[in-house]
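Internal tracking record. Fields below are filled automatically when a chain is submitted to the structure queue. Please do not edit lines marked as system-generated. If the sequence contains nonstandard residues, flag them in the REMARKS field before resubmitting.
Queue: standard
Priority: normal
Entity type: single polypeptide chain
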Amino acid sequence: MAPKPARLLADSRRALLTMLGLLAVIWLVQLVNWMDDYGLSEDFGLMPRRLDELPDMFTMPLLHFGWGHIEANSWPLFVFGFLSAYRGMKKFLWATLMIVVFSGLTVWLCERPEAVTAGASGLVYGYFGYLVLRGVLDRNLLDAAIGVVVAAVYSYLLIGVLPVAQGVSWLGHLGGLLGGLAAAWLLRNRGPKAADPAPEPAAGPRSALLKELNDLGL
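SYSTEM-GENERATED OUTPUT FOLLOWS
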């Protein structure tokens, strides 16, 4: 197994490349969407309570309704996504899936029927919730410190889970936040760390006898 610092560096590099790749895809989609007069958002954004629309919860985070919309989401998405992924991609991918599903189902079940929802803000709020809770549940000092800083600096985001602004999918924000908190709980490290193996007893007649008795289950 790679030494811990080397493994952390490798995971951080993968996290960086993953988030840069995700942002590149989102901005490329935005360019095509803009050239199509935002037809992609209308066609592949999520509409509530229609079974044929359910798969669109997975395309919804890639789509936006304007350049200001995508700009507002891109920076926190990159920061929160990288910090969520820097200690391993497997948990990050599971967390991302849960956030997308929670956010999408909340919109699909509760949004008004005529609304079309799109945007990566559900992911932003999900990663925010995941970061705030993960370090505490994992008993990881560094992650707990990151969670405190993120909560303090970006606490204003919590206004976005309230129905106070028109044209903002607060339900997508709320669902994403709940998905991130659920992911932190379900993906938490469980049980104590493995203890170091006990040293082998010194060789000798007595140790040989004890080994034989142990092999016999006595």
